[in-house]
Amino acid sequence: APSVTIRQNRYLPIGSDGSKDQVWQIPVCVKYRTAQGVEKECFLLDRAREDFKLAKASSCPAELAANDNGSGYYIAGYQGSMLEKLVDQGEPFLDTAEQITLLHDLRSLSDGGSVKESVTLGAVPVYAKSAERQVVSQAQGIANGVRALVPANLLPNYARFVRKMFSERAEALGWSAKPGDDSETRLLRAGMVPFVAVNGEDEKLQREARRLAGEWLRDRKGVDPDMLSSVLSTAAHSGDRALFDRLLEELKKTDDRSQRRAILGALGSFRDPKLVDAAHELVLHSDIDARESGMLIFAGRNDPKTERMPFQFVKTNYEELIKRLPTGGGSDFGAALPEVVAGCDAQAMEEIKFFEDRVKQFAGGPRTYQQAVESLRLCTARKAALGPDVVKFFEKQ
Questions:
Q1: Element spanning 37, H or E
Q2: How many Cα atoms are found within 13 Å in the side-chain-facing hemisphere of 300?
Q3: Mean pLDDT for the chain?
């Protein structure tokens, strides 16, 4: 009789030094296609590996999904051509929950080193056009999650890939709600449009964001409240000194906390190194409450050209920052300072040592430091393992 071989091990990301030698009792439900239709069977996997007969199949199924309805508490990997068949089948065989689970699992498996990143990225074109928001969001998450592995010279190729996958839909959604929009459409807009505008360098969406930001700064109208932060930050992404000064001027005029957060987020989103410096300086040399301006320390961290600047700013002004940043209540801002270190490389691992002893004076500081070190270590290992495959993929885009 046909059978399925299932084995289990503990999931760990690339670079983790944890042991994979752990076995659980896991209910596993599979779904497969037969000549009579789609069948489902469940098993209890309580050892490292076991073979289970497929009682409802008369021959080896053409397709098999290892997590029926996405209800199992495990990540499913596939051998041979099984994965390729599942990805290509999409909706005809997998329901919405199974598609979401498949994409989530693919991303996890690539992060764990079990699947090439190019294979995971290859699923994006299949599911990016789905009618289901959460399926599209998973596909978008794959595209977003790989950006840190793309070298600077290939970022234009990466942006082109993002536009090819998502721009048509993002531009149709636009920045503003339309009559009859349901909650799923609003959520899709909030997640997709700023992603395509920034990561995809979509000039049309960026231009529209700058226009809407200008109108909102003039009369506080024209932007949906749930899109305000995204509109202002996207406008800043491609903005100049004039917009920076305008945002700062308007910040002084409002006491509305949500509007202040949106404006401060935009002030920290400029890419021009001079404006990144200007954002950092606001933390030290402005009358903005340090509980608000502290977020500007991280300005520039997400762009390859400026990602080292937050650390250099903190290192140069450390003593003055410690005097100014908020402390007490069990939440010292100084404990979060190791998170300014960016870059998945040896330089970042060296830079973060600056904080090793300094964070000991802050509540939660040592734990935050260890988490930041681990994050950098895993990121560096992931980039070393997956980077060459990512380069090959985006060289062709």
A1: strand 37-45
A2: 23
A3: 95
Residue 243 CA neighbour count, 13 Å, CB half? 28
Q: Would you say how long the chain is, in residues?
A: 397
End-to-end CA distance of the chain: 45
The tens digit of pLDDT for each residue in 46-72 reads 999 999 999 999 999 988 999 999 999
> Distance (Å, rounded) from C-alpha 387 to C-alpha 379?
11
Q: Cα–Cα distance between 179 and 182 in angstroms, integer?
A: 9
CA–CA distance, 212 with 343 (Å, rounded to integer): 33
Q: What are the structure tokens assigned to 243, written together?
A: 């917009």
Q: If you compute the radius of gyration of the chain from its CA atoms, what whole number of angstroms results?
A: 24
Q: Are 144 and 195 in contact (CB under 8 A)?
A: yes
Q: Give the tokens for residue 298.
A: 């991280």
User: Alpha-carbon distance 284 to 290, whole Å?
Assistant: 8
Helix (H, G, I), strand (E, B) or coil at 116: coil
Cα torsion through 51, 67, 110, 130, rounded to 10: 150
The CA angle 130-135-136, to the nearest 5 degrees, is 65
**Integer Cα distance of 382 and 35 in angstroms:** 42
How many CB atoms neighbour CB 64 within 10 A?
A: 19
Q: What is the pLDDT of residue 330?
A: 66
